[in-house]
Amino acid sequence: MNGTLSLAELDDRIAILRDNLRQLVEQAAGSSGSQDEERTAERIDRQTDELNKLIAERDSRTRK
Hints:
Elements: H1 7-30, H2 34-62
């Protein structure tokens, strides 16, 4: 999927993921209960993985 995105689209996705992560961290700080915390931690992990992939893709393209 990432290979088909333009640099502008990659930047947009990166911004969206960063905002999602910010919201998830705020949500995690306000929630209690092990199930909620585990579910939020899993979402944060998935979003962080995707963010790292997109950043790596963008960086590899801009170095060329």
